[in-house]
Specification:
This protein is α+β, with helices and mostly antiparallel strands. Helices cover 24% and strands 29% of the residues. β1 and β2 form a beta hairpin. The radius of gyration is 22 Å and the shape is globular. It is found in: Secreted, Extracellular space, Apoplast.
């Protein structure tokens, strides 16, 4: 091969390498960087009062979830961040779930212990128990959960590095799979699988008398 052909091959390799780098940056990026000081606009409030009352609130057997959104707090538009407040009742669980577009940083405000855990892509579980003032990090896209092991309500606040991190409930996703596929994966008969499906609740915060949880004094 002549020098001209060699140079052409090298140029092609460099172009492919640069394209790979650019695509990697796009894939790894969370929300796009803002192009102005305050994307919500100069007149938008930059403070938000009483997230428990005025946020996007859901209450279930496991406790209360109060979240920000760009609709209730437009200041988060284009900033690549949001926050959620949780109040878990004793034995309340924030069921296994993932955030496909965000890493989560959790801070326990009051109560405890809080059992936290996440599973990596090798299927290895990591857990710990947290008390007021403790912090946990859940990597983006990985399955994680929390459970209040104490005998009083527990409060924690999570920050996520996306204005729309997404929440994928693991149980809800699992039971959306067709019965023959799921029965094969779990190696159980379809009638037994259907019993599990019939008793499933898609709520994120739950308690269950079947869990065997006994709150710690």
């Amino acid at each position: 091969m002549g020098s001209k052909g060699h140079h052409s091959s090298m140029m092609i390799l460099w172009v492919m390498f640069l394209a790979f780098l650019i695509m990697s940056m796009i894939v790894k990026a969370a929300d796009p960087d803002p192009l102005v000081d305050f994307p919500a606009g100069p007149g938008a409030p930059f403070t938000f009062h009483d997230i428990t009352a005025n946020g996007v609130v859901t209450q279930t057997s496991g406790g209360t979830r109060a979240a920000l959104s760009t609709e209730v707090f437009p200041a988060t538009i284009g900033e690549g961040i949001t926050s959620v407040k949780f109040i878990l009742v004793p034995c309340g669980v924030n069921v296994p779930h993932t955030h496909p577009r965000a890493t989560e940083l959790l801070n326990v405000v009051s109560g405890g212990p809080l059992l936290v855990g996440w599973v990596n892509t090798s299927g290895v579980l990591q857990t710990d128990r947290l008390f007021a003032g403790d912090v946990a990090l859940f990597p983006r896209g990985l399955l994680h959960f929390e459970q209040n092991l104490g005998n009083t309500n527990l409060t924690f606040i999570s920050a996520l590095n996306s204005q729309n991190p997404g929440v994928l409930n693991a149980g809800q996703a699992l039971f959306a799979i067709p019965n023959p596929v799921l029965a094969t994966a779990l190696n159980i008969p379809i009638p037994i699988l259907q019993i599990f499906k019939n008793g499933f609740s898609p709520a994120l915060l739950q308690t269950s008398p079947l869990s065997g949880c006994i709150p710690l004094a």
